[in-house]
């Protein structure tokens, strides 16, 4: 009853670590994983060590040639060594041109699908969800996407998720995700929230190669860029942006879905939430401590700020994948209890 078979869509920087972290969770068994080029299936449980070794230094997330139809949400270059690409190099995998369809074909064997795909087209993940609906999938879909506007696109699909028996958990990484949940918990002291400030720090020197997809998406939050211009940057241009900032990128007023996710959980208005942070690709040390500050008024008339901090030694990968798998498990419990539709991380915390 407690055991969960799950699939990972996208074994890039995040998806690979999802598989690795799941090794430490007894009840979670990864049975399917795919990237742009391959799909690995084992109903008894994938050999994660073999899959990680095969894809080490070989994440299939290359840019597409001009004129090619983008079906992948605009995957960015990460890195590749050797002849084969990504998951297809694993002895458990087959090369494929239809990885998402291949995962859907296995969906009766999975309780949950973690979507770790790029998000360079806002409707990419909602469209992937539609394909699971069309295939009559019943179970959990969970993503770690960042952008606020995608949550509305998922909301619009609530009825079809409910009819299908799908529990969709959205924005369930670190921010949004872990920190959104922390803000929802910190807000419980107050009867009225004035402000939620989320400020993150990521040091990514040794993880930079593996996480270039995420870095590219983050660049889209800088004032002179958007998702389209960031998607079209060459690797060299990305490096130029990074060098121009001496390897340290600072972000303010990011479009992170923490705002709409806190609003939909009735914690506060979206406009009272700000998200910013600092990314240092030249050091593993966090350039700033990740902090959530929730300011509000208590029932007995005090105004205070509850603060939640992450230890500087916890990595981005730990803070995305631990919570994502925790939310996945919460989603499966809801799904098995017959609760379908769209849920954000704040709704899985105490609330009214
Ligand atoms: N919420 C958070 O805190 C948080 C933190 C970090 C990253 N993220 C998000 O996680 C997502 C993944 O980031 P990443 O760094 O792992 O990216 P990445 O580029 O390293 O990996 C993406 C993976 O998706 C695969 N892929 C792309 N198109 C595909 C398709 N059509 N079919 C099958 N597979 C396909 C690629 O081959 C690759 O394996 C991004 O959207 C990023 O914004 C969220």
From TrEMBL:
Domain of life, per UniProt, equals: Archaea
InterPro entries listed in its UniProt record? NAD(P)-bd_dom_sf
Region: Disordered, residue numbers: 59-97
Q: What is this protein called?
A: (S)-8-amino-7-oxononanoate synthase BioU
